[in-house]
Specification:
Two copies of one chain form a homodimer. Chain A is mostly helical and 237 residues long. Chain A is built from ten helices and four strands; from the N terminus they run H-H-E-E-H-H-H-H-H-E-E-H-H-H. Chain A has helices at 14-21, 30-38, 56-72, 76-87, 102-106, 115-122, 126-134, 152-166, 171-197, 201-235; strands spanning 45-46, 52-53, 141-142, 148-149. The longest helix of chain A has 35 residues, at 201-235. The radius of gyration of chain A is 24 Å and the shape is elongated. Residues 1-6 of chain A have low confidence and may be disordered. The interface between A and B is large, with 121 and 120 residues. Chain B binds a DNA duplex (30 and 30 nucleotides) through residues 13-15, 29-32, 34-35, 39, 47, 49-52, 69, 75-77.
DNA sequence: CCGACCCTCAACCGAAGGTTGAGACTTCTG
DNA sequence: CAGAAGTCTCAACCTTCGGTTGAGGGTCGG
């Protein structure tokens, strides 16, 4: 069941792998690779004399591991379990893995920021901020005294917006994203609507759970779709 | 600049905080809270006699910390830096923080799965899988020998789809999400188009970088928007 | 006044993630 | 064909992280 190939795939010794990885991961060492094997994250073939032999796939796997460590701070245990789950699909009737409890999804750190603070933290200019509020991308909270306050979600939004704006997108493009978010919210909202109609706390909690889980899944779905499409875009030369 | 309040906000002693947190975090201890303070993640007020006094905000902050640990395995250092960045906005002209290098975003673990394996790993039924392929949500790779193969992104998609389907969404809803992803891809694609036209490796790399960064930012933006809207949906009773 | 609660500070702890070095074999290189 | 460079295993060791434990002592509520 291996992929057909005409020329034997290129393989590498441990030292060659290190050199390959060095540019992206300067910290990598021979002993670390061996350590990863000892922990069961990789399983390179061996030559007759006992030398490790790495295929392209092995190298990709190592890169993946190192990136998860570097970019998401994941413990090796967790990375391993992802890799394993991957590999030969978990056994038997799979319960759809549901994410963290709703509290986590809807958690807020409780900070609140003035427009001024938001600008400083995000890097947005006053005009940009105004435009974003105007387009409904940012929605400040009105306090009784008339001043506006932003929450932690808004900071995430503002930072992301700043990033996109400096890359050349315009506020109207961000409005498009906002519309997509609205549609997504509607979709999910419908799902929870029946539960929210009769307002008892038990149903409310249940609704929160469903919404959190589905919102997360929907985000993952969309992100993976976009990533896949972009990858293809880059691949076809 | 504090929020106006009529009745003094409720405060709590360390033991009371523990009791409050126990349900969601059974592992919590007094010493752990003190430890978090020693690491500078929280800074409760003190009474005249030196007792720690926790406000609602402090409690929320602790909950946030504990959730980041539990759900995203983040090291305390990283959580702290997020909290600090938050708080009083990083100083001075903010360079838009850009994410990890493009390799990370477009990274693939290099696994490939047969339809059968994908079903087992995701929990999708054969009909569901067919329907998803039909709607363009999943796009298998055709091998020369005619068999179909899925990549790691597809596994993420399949799992998320399964999660949503068991929650009551239908394939046509997922198609909606796919369309949103298409639009998003177009939007980003335009941004990189000029660079991709003249095909030299330097431009290509640059395009990858921009795409990865913007895709990430766009996802964050949309997610934060959806989260905010859902939160409001739940809040208004 | 007593029992429950809280404080600090220093010492200690286990797990995670590697590193180091000794001793021995294998593989390139001139 | 020698020797330098690369690789192997295995056990000991190391640092950082994320706390725990305990001694010694003050504080609060009934």
């Amino acid at each position: 069941m291996t992929r057909p190939h005409l020329r034997a795939a290129r393989t590498r010794s441990i030292g060659e792998v290190i050199n390959l990885l060095k540019p992206e991961f300067p910290e990598i060492t021979v002993s670390k690779i061996r350590f990863l094997e000892s922990r069961g994250l990789i399983e390179p073939q061996r030559s007759a004399s006992g030398y490790r032999i790495f295929t392209e796939d092995d190298v990709r796997r190592i890169e993946y591991i190192l990136r998860e460590q570097r970019d998401h701070y994941l413990p090796l245990k967790v990375i391993k379990s992802k890799l394993v789950a991957w590999e030969h699909g978990e056994e038997s009737p799979v319960p759809p893995e549901s994410g963290p409890p709703p509290e986590a999804y809807f958690a807020s750190s409780g900070v609140s920021l003035t427009p001024r603070e938001l600008m400083r933290s995000s890097g947005l200019s006053a005009e940009q901020l105004d435009a974003l509020v105007d387009q409904g991308v940012l929605e400040p909270f009105e306090l009784p005294d008339g001043s506006a306050v932003f929450r932690d979600d808004d900071l995430v939004i503002a930072k992301a917006a700043h990033r996109l704006l400096t890359r050349g997108l315009e506020v109207r493009h961000l409005r498009t994203i906002r519309l997509a978010a609205d549609r997504q919210t509607d979709l999910l909202g419908q799902l929870a609507a029946p539960l929210l109609r009769h307002r008892n706390p038990d149903n409310r909690r249940k609704a929160a759970e469903i919404l959190a889980d589905c919102a997360e899944a929907a985000t993952q779905l969309e992100e993976a779709l976009v990533r896949g499409r972009l990858r293809r875009l880059l691949e076809r030369q």
